[in-house]
Amino acid sequence: MAGGVVVNAGGGKDYPGKLTMFVLFACIVAATGGLIFGYDIGISGGVTSMNPFLMKFFPSVYHKEQEAERNQSNQYCKFDSQLLTMFTSSLYLAALVASFCAATVTRVAGRKWSMFGGGVTFLVGAALNGAAKDVVMLILGRVLLGIGVGFANQSVPVYLSEMAPARLRGMLNIGFQLMITIGILCANLINYGTAKIKGGWGWRVSLALAAVPAAIIAVGALFLPDTPNSLIARGYTDDAKRMLKRVRGTEDVEEEYNDLVAASEESKLVAHPWSNILQPRYRPQLVMAIAIPMFQQLTGINVIMFYAPVLFKTLGFADDASLMSAVITGLVNVFATFVSIVTVDRLGRRKLFLQGGTQMLACQIVVGSLIGAKFGFTGVAEIPKAYAAIVVLFICAYVAGFAWSWGPLGWLVPSEIFPLEIRSAGQSINVSVNMLCTFIIAQAFLPMLCRFKFILFFFFGAWVVVMTIFVALFLPETKNAPIEEMVLVWKAHWYWSRFIRDEDVHVGADLEMPSANGNGKVGAGKLGGMQ
Ligand code: BGC
Questions:
Q1: Nearest residue by C-alpha to atom 3 in ligand 1
Q2: Neighbours of 230 (CB within 10 A)
Q3: Between the CA of residue 320 and those of 57, 310, 325, 326, 392, what are the distances in Å?
């Protein structure tokens, strides 16, 4: 075995190298791509609860709201307007489509150019939104923001997972989710301030400030190095080796380099990543690329993220108090993400998924029951302050559970499971399913709240039960496994192994195929620990 390569407990290799400042810095800069996504998630809920914004663009919603306040009418239904939700969700449709174009840019031109393109498009969208004169300009701006998000979310997670040394991949990748949560928090804080602006143009400031995170990622991307995987795939083998040495902080990269080249060679045999991904041997990855983002959205998190101020207003908080409560959930979201950053490479992905899911479920049951007990099905009630505070507390515990499980892992796991030949395509599927489900939930939440009332919390709770069982049965542990050797993890899984033939398993020079009967150097038995 060349150099200092050892086979780690999980059955994959530990390549030599350390966490260099260079890689840390590159990952921090790339992760800022999450800011644009987060800023956007956080800004829409607050803006759509500002009266001057509603009066200008959605007067019918504004009147309905006023009337509800006068008549003390059904609280569940006061914000039910399709046009208003179209404002929130148009972005996700645009992001869905854009992520497919981003797949080609990311593969052919390199990851950094997708990030750059994303930042620039988002910047233009922010300008249009800040200057919006009518609904058309508003929605057009949001479509551009969506294209920006599609490109960034397609390229950033892949970039981070390729740059990171295997044993720190979880930590570095979650930088993306951390930036999402910081973006959401900043947006909530900005809304809190701009809602107080007397002239009624606070919403313009909120929307235009999206230009700041856009500029950060656009400029940052220009300085980012390409990943060694991408350089090799595009034929720059010398640059790739130099980069790998720099990234890993050692001259001893021969082994990893050879494995990357082997992965790249294999990927060249694949003419069409899109049709290829449908082959049986990629079935586990394909299923995960669809199931993980779908489940992430079915946790119901974006009900809180988009509509926290609306939701808190529904609970009877005053304008100011509801924005403040959204700030509190935003803070919990950021701090709880650190829990996953420090534990994900030690405890592994599965434990976080299972714990987070259980915690979310418990909170959903409590919140649904508390709201149901007060509002019942009529939706008319006065909620005492202390009661509302307890609801907020459980919403915070729910957000925390998400923030160390489905939040970060919903981006980390899909970005680390695809072999190079289908990585870009696979990540697009992940982004587009995520955006489609976000769109559906954004669009359906207000009408659903109006019709299902507090039962909605139990609806999402039931999904959390399904996804937690899914993870327990079907998601193998991926911590510490080098990204170009992930096939070993699937091959060792009780269920997925049936889709992968022995001859499909190539993992570079040193590790031979783990045959089903354990004859290879790394046998299936050794990989058992990864499940
Ligand atoms: C999800 C978003 C969500 C955010 C909350 C992300 O991982 O993709 O939909 O709003 O987490 O922090």
A1: 302
A2: 28
A3: 21, 11, 9, 10, 15
Is the pLDDT reported for residue 79 higher than 90?
no
Checking if the pLDDT of 506 tops 50, the result is yes
Picking from 464, 465, 463, 496, the residue whose alpha carbon sits closest to that of residue 478 is: 496
Token reading at 194: 């701009």
Name the residue among 420, 484, 421 with its Cα closest to residue 271: 421
Judged by DSSP in three states, 6 sits in strand
Q: Is 410 in the pocket of ligand 1 (CB under 6 A)?
A: yes
Q: What's the pLDDT at 78?
A: 59
> Which residues, 6 or more positions from 451, have their beta carbon under 8 angstroms from its beta carbon?
none
For position 241, what pLDDT does the model report? 94
**Contact, 43 vs 129, CB < 8 A?**
no
Task: Tell me the three state secondary structure of residue 2.
Answer: coil
Q: In the structure, what pLDDT confidence band is assigned to residue 508 with cuts at 50, 70 and 90?
A: low
We find that the CATH architecture of domain 21-502 is: Up-down Bundle (1.20)
Which of 177, 341, 437 has the most ligand 1 atoms within 8 A of CB, as the residue to mutate?
177
Pairing of strands 6-7, 13-14: antiparallel
Q: Which amino acid, one-letter code, is at 405?
A: S
The 3-class secondary structure across 47-79, one letter per residue, is HCCCHHHHHHHCHHHHHHHHHHHHHCCCHHHCC
Q: Which two tokens stand for residue 460?
A: 């999402």
Domain ranges of the chain: 21-502
Q: What is the 3-state secondary structure (H, E, C) of 158-179?
A: HHHHHHCCHHHHHHHHHHHHHH
Distance separating alpha carbons of residues 404 and 177, to the nearest angstrom: 10
- Does the beta carbon of 177 lie inside 6 Å of ligand 1? yes
Give the lowest-confidence range in 154-163, 358-367, 384-393.
Answer: 384-393
Alpha-carbon distance of 431 to 96, in angstroms, equals 7
